[in-house]
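Q: I'm writing up a methods section and want to include an example of the input and output format. Could you take the sequence below and give the corresponding predicted structure tokens, formatted cleanly so I can copy it straight into the document?
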Amino acid sequence: MHRILELDVTKEFLSKIDKNAYDILTKWNDAKSITNDEKIAELVGQKVTTVRSTLNKLSFRGVVKYEKEKDQKSGWYNFYWGIDFKKLATLICQEHIDRKTKLSEKQRQLNEYDYFTCKNICSEEPFEIAAEYDFVCPHCNQSLALMDKKAQSNKILSEIQNIEKDLEFIKNIYS
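A: Here is the clean output for your methods example:
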């Protein structure tokens, strides 16, 4: 199940949650027996407060879970953490499916409309909007030119194929 950490999409997904999340999960996963947040902090070489903050963000999303146990001597609670790989896979798949849906809609619109952009590719505007701007980019004041539909379409199809490949990989892990 830990193979999901090998995917680039996992790194991207976790970095949206917290900049330290991927590093913490990969190093922590390699040292399977560690479950205490203080030991995880030692392992990754970060402050325990930073690690706890990241773990709490991951816990909010369901990527990690914890159990707490009261220390009878000190009265403090000890937290023992674990990674929920299945939840991580589910979240990544859902994000991928949403992205694929948006790309498919963009592909459909690309086939139905003419889009214009500047050489800096600040934005992609349909004909009607480009005409309102007198075919001048509202961001950089460069001329707007007709986009190459074929190149854009190929780029979108390539992204969709990559998403499908990742989804198939994740499906194979959990089958």
